[in-house]
Inverse folding.
């Protein structure tokens, strides 16, 4: 097969490309340039979009003996991932930019361009497994290494894009094995630190980035009874479940910490309350993407954060909407988060959280 290997400049994508070469595929490496103003991205290894990463990707391609190109996807990245990030926060929701990058860039813009150029598949260094059943059905599963599993952020891709994807690292037992393989192959990125944080927030200060883009929007911080207990400079800078940085002028009557319960963009208010008030056991979501046709009523496990613990649930599906009832409650579930449904290790589908509630409270 003709395979386009997405080379981020990190060790995972380099080893994934090497394994595709070993498998006998005709591999071409490509690095995605996601900004035309490169200095807005951090240097070093904190993100995945620094200028050093482009050089590391080129050196990896040279070692592997494969052609290497840089594709400018900066306009698509700004118009989709960054724009979505800003609009979601401004609307009082909590987005996951890695999910949106996989949806709009890696498995949309990149994959579509690859197919148009005659490639059969895109290979990435994500930790996830593709299982092919006897009837040819391709399923997305968790990686063998649970600590590195990235199936959560890949669930948005859907079956059609999964059909043209390769994840050679899905069966790797640990990141240490990947690093050892990279060193044995002579790849200079073998000891490169993992990337983390949001790649387009250059200094890691998400609130500062939002403030610079969205400006000052002062308003009230209120408790669950509507009483003003503080002020904020922009509701967009807060997320459900947040405890630190509230700077409240009035302590809670019981002396216990307060947490952000909800964001009300229409009223420009941040609502705070106790840890108990954060607990929810019913989550509604829409814009569902399914791998196969789901049952209208199914038992599953769900996850609402990339590194969250899966929780047993019962899901009721209606079109592209889904409502899950959790066996055990979760705290800090925010609109905008990605809700991923699993059957064991298999990804069933993904949807975007619209609301959450406590069933007992709603019934009273």
């Amino acid at each position: 097969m003709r395979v386009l290997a997405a080379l981020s400049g990190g060790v995972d994508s380099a080893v994934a490309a090497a394994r595709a070469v070993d498998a006998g595929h005709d591999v071409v490496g490509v690095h995605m340039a996601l900004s035309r103003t490169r200095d807005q991205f951090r240097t070093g290894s904190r993100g995945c979009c620094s200028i050093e990463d482009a050089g590391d990707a080129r050196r990896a391609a040279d070692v592997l003996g494969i052609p290497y190109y840089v594709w400018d996807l900066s306009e698509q990245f700004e118009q989709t991932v960054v724009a979505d990030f800003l609009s979601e926060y401004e609307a009082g929701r909590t987005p996951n930019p890695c999910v949106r990058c996989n949806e709009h860039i890696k498995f949309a813009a990149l994959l579509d361009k690859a197919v148009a150029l005659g490639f059969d598949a895109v290979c990435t260094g994500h930790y996830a497994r593709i299982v092919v059943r006897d009837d040819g059905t391709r399923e997305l599963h968790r990686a063998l290494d649970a600590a590195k599993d990235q199936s959560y952020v890949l669930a948005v891709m859907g079956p059609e894009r999964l059909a043209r994807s390769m994840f050679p690292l899905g069966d790797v037992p640990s990141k240490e094995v990947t690093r050892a393989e990279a060193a044995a192959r002579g790849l200079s990125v073998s000891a490169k630190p993992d990337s983390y944080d949001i790649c387009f927030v250059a200094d890691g200060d998400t609130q500062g980035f939002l403030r610079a883009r969205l400006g000052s929007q002062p308003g009230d911080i209120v408790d669950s009874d509507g009483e003003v207990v503080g002020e904020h400079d922009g509701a967009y800078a807060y997320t459900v479940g947040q405890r630190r940085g509230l700077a409240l002028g009035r302590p809670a009557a019981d002396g216990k910490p307060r947490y952000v319960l909800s964001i009300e963009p229409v009223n420009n208010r941040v609502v705070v309350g106790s840890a108990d008030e954060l607990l929810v056991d019913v989550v509604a979501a829409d814009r569902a993407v399914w791998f196969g046709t789901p049952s209208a009523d199914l038992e599953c496990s769900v996850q609402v954060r990339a590194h969250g613990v899966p929780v047993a649930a019962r899901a009721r599906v209606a079109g592209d909407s889904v409502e899950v009832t959790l066996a055990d409650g979760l705290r800090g579930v925010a609109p905008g988060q990605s809700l991923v449904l699993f059957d064991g290790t298999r990804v069933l589908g993904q949807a975007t959280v619209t609301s959450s509630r406590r069933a007992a409270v709603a019934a009273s």
